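Lab notebook, bench 4. The sequencing result for the construct came back, and we need a structural model before the next group meeting so we can plan mutations. Quick request posted to the team channel:

Model the 3D structure of this chain.
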Amino acid sequence: MFLPLDVLSAFVLASAVLCVMPGPDNLFVLSQSAIYGKKSGIFVTLGLCIGLIFHTFVVAMGLAVVIQSSPAALLAIKLFGAGYLLYLAWQAFRASSVAENTVTAGVVSNAAMLRRGIIMNVSNPKVSIFFLAFLPQFASAEYGAIAPQLVLLGGVFILVTLAVFSSFALLSGVLRTLLNSKPNAQLYINRGAGLVLTILAITLLSSNI
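Done. Here's the predicted structure in token form:
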């Protein structure tokens, strides 16, 4: 199995563009980084990338088609994902109500941030459907077996995501430091993050897939 350099280059470019575009995952990284700092954002990013490993193998094994054709399975996954996002939004709003005079939002362990990223990504069925539509466009039978190509492409996408989202986390961490020098900055950061998380939950519930 061998993918030509021009195919891989085109895939990397397309992946980078998609990662930069506003979406649930990068908005999630930004919101968590703004609240808890750049290190937490990095761990959320790692969690999201672990979730992408799951979706890569789901698509490579053909299970995404099964998931897409089962309304009950899709609804269950969407309800779980939306419920978790609303729980995080409630935490953010609650933090804003008790931390108006402080620049700290509490301590969340790296393991907890990693877990948040994994749950956020795995519970979003749109990722598997996206991979099912996106990855095969760069695979071909003339390059060998399709499944290993999909795994390779998924791996490359994960590396691109890791680089782009980590950059988002670092930039958001710098923004948090600047904002924390102003009165009530954490209050507005938490409220903004809670609003973003609520919108993401509503968007997931209202999606047609």
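Confidence is low (pLDDT under 50) at residues 97-105.
Will bring this to the meeting.
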